[in-house]
Amino acid sequence: MTNPTIQHTWTGRDDGPGHEHRRWHHAVNTAQAGTPGIAILGFRSDEGVRRNKGRVGAVDGPASIRSALAPMAAPAELLVHDLGDTTVVDGNLEDGQERLGAVVRQALDAGHLPVILGGGHETAFGTYTGLRASQVTDERRIGIINLDAHFDLRAEEIPSSGTPFRQVAETERALGHGFNYTVVGISQPGNTEALFQTARDLGVKYLLDEECTESKTEQVRQFTQDFIDSVDVVYLTIDLDVLPAYVAPGVSAPASYGVPLSVVLEVCRQLARSPKLAVVDVVELNPRFDVDSRTARTASRLIHTIATERSGHRHA
Ligand SMILES: N=CN[C@@H](CCC(=O)O)C(=O)O
Ligand SMILES: [Mn+2]
Ligand SMILES: [Mn+2]
């Protein structure tokens, strides 16, 4: 059915045996494949960003995030399965999204929390496909929370990194479901009036980047909670261009304002605590434009926080 490849070698500093020295590279692929844990899945794709006329390079995002995750200190409870990469071949994005959907579905049905590393935001349509097909979702209401400067609701003939949530809306409608989609961090100048109108037409609730400053963390938390409470299963999708360009320069479209990392981390922690959180993807990392691996480190910090929170680890 699917044939993902695992090319990455998880290596990093080794301070000796014992859980007090444990790092991510020690936590990967050491447990039985069937033991529920965090499932890392790469989606090697440039095709969505290319079609959306952006800066290509996201194809190397998964390797860059894995390298930044590998040396991070890991709690004893953390259990990670690297299920390898799905690669878009010869520009056939639709085929790649379908194959990604199949591995996401398998990971969900095995009881894991899949964390998919993009790829541009076209990754999201593959993630959604797997989630909708999985037993975890069944016929329940999926809620998608997108941390992003953009709506990604473009109406285009051809799917791209700018269209995934329009595709989800249409698919959900065809299946007889509602479209439960919210965006945190929308940049007003980053989205035309036509996109704001589409969001209104589809009933999309959103917070502007200027409504997500540190002093407004509590309002962001309440907004997120209201959304969690309104659905059955939650899919968190993180477009790294939601962050300020100084912590995320390596993306196709860097933010001119951005939601502070502390606020994004708080939302991630809040979602990770919810048993409704079923799947996460982190997209748009473009290593070609990264600076000192800043964006990769930021992405890894977000994933580390979600995985740690999910594993039930608390510092003494
Ligand atoms: N993934 C989406 N990207 C944005 C790109 C915006 C830009 O290039 O400025 C979009 O299509 O809206
Ligand atoms: Mn996006
Ligand atoms: Mn974006």
TrEMBL record:
Family that this chain belongs to: Belongs to the arginase family.
Enzyme Commission no: 3.5.3.8
Cofactor binding: number and manner: Binds 2 manganese ions per subunit.
GO MF terms, alphabetically ordered: formimidoylglutamase activity
Gene from which the chain derives: hutG
Sequence ranges of Polar residues compositional bias: 1-10
Taxonomic lineage: Bacteria, Bacillati, Actinomycetota, Actinomycetes, Micrococcales
Top-level taxon in the UniProt lineage: Bacteria
Stated name of the protein: Formimidoylglutamase
Pathway: Amino-acid degradation; L-histidine degradation into L-glutamate; L-glutamate from N-formimidoyl-L-glutamate (hydrolase route): step 1/1
Tagged with keyword Hydrolase: yes
Entry cofactors: Mn(2+)
NCBIfam families linked to this entry: hutG
Membrane-spanning parts: none
Binding site for Mn(2+) 1: H121, D148, D152, D239
Binding site for Mn(2+) 2: D148, H150, D239, D241
Database matches in PROSITE patterns: ARGINASE_1, ARGINASE_2
The reaction(s) this protein catalyses: N-formimidoyl-L-glutamate + H2O = formamide + L-glutamate
InterPro entries for this protein: HutG, Ureohydrolase, Ureohydrolase_dom_sf, Ureohydrolase_Mn_BS
Residue span of region Disordered: 1-21
Keyword vocabulary terms for this entry: Histidine metabolism, Hydrolase, Manganese, Metal-binding
Pfam family, one: Arginase
Chain's role: Catalyzes the conversion of N-formimidoyl-L-glutamate to L-glutamate and formamide.
